[in-house]
Amino acid sequence: MAPADADIQRLTSRTLPQPGEHISLGGPLRVLIFLGVWLLASLLSLFLNSLAAASWGAVISQIFSILLATYASRVVRIAAQWERGVILRLGRFHGLKGPGVLLVFPVVDNVRFVDTRLLTMEIPHQQVITRDNVPVNVDGVLFFTVQDPEKATVTVQDYRFAIAQYSQASLRDVIGSMTLDELLSERDQIQARIAEVVESRGQAWGIHVDSIRLLDINMPEDLKRMMSRQASAEREKRATITKAEGDAAAALNLATAAQTMAASPGSMQLRTLQTLDGLGSSPSNTVVLAVPVEVMEMVKEITRRISPE
Prior knowledge:
Helices cover 57% and strands 20% of the residues. The radius of gyration is 44 Å and the shape is rod-shaped. The chain starts with a helix and ends with a helix. Among the domains are: 9-114, no CATH class; 119-223, Band 7 domain (Tetrahydropterin Synthase, Chain A, 2-Layer Sandwich). It is an alpha+beta fold.
């Protein structure tokens, strides 16, 4: 990785949240609640102490004020627009809350925030042996969303890890049932089939698979060279067939032209003159006609007359 790319990645990792990380939006609000509750509790304790005139009561009241303010500040939580809070009350599912301000009572309630945006997960290199015993390395990327945060939290321990492992296993199973030619020519169908298999399982976890894309397919180098030679041979075969078809078509056209010239005596002379004109168009060429065309035609006519019938 280049130094500039490393710096960009480092700055991005500092400023942007990691996938699935909860963004705490209620920090300043919780501080204000803490100060407000502490101030009210302190004023109340001072008033009570003035009535009771007990010195030790001031210490107890201050401690109580701080504990009450801390608890009150922990009650308020804020969920972003794309987050849903799964509330567990005394260990049991209580409901979904969010987005916005949530009231979560510590000790009694526990909240887990779930990201409902479109999530991206990389499928690392998977070494697969195709049906015709060819080893290939395939990697891809998975796009999915959490449609039911309750199932994603309660049904499976870690839905990200589960969907990633299931996607890898499905990719190996689907590609392992196909030949190398099918893998190279039916890429869209393979992607759709893998997504369908993962989607059928992800629905039980509250997950919807948007799509799965295959990024790269690596094969052994010797196999690549053989495929290159095969492609070159196929192209040479097509070129040879095309040239033979062109020669056959040219022969037919020449035969038709010869018949036409034989039917018209003057056409051969015109063709000869055209050929001479083409040769003599360049100043470096000199054309010498030893016997005129008319003399050749006269010889042919005499020969035809004196020849026996």
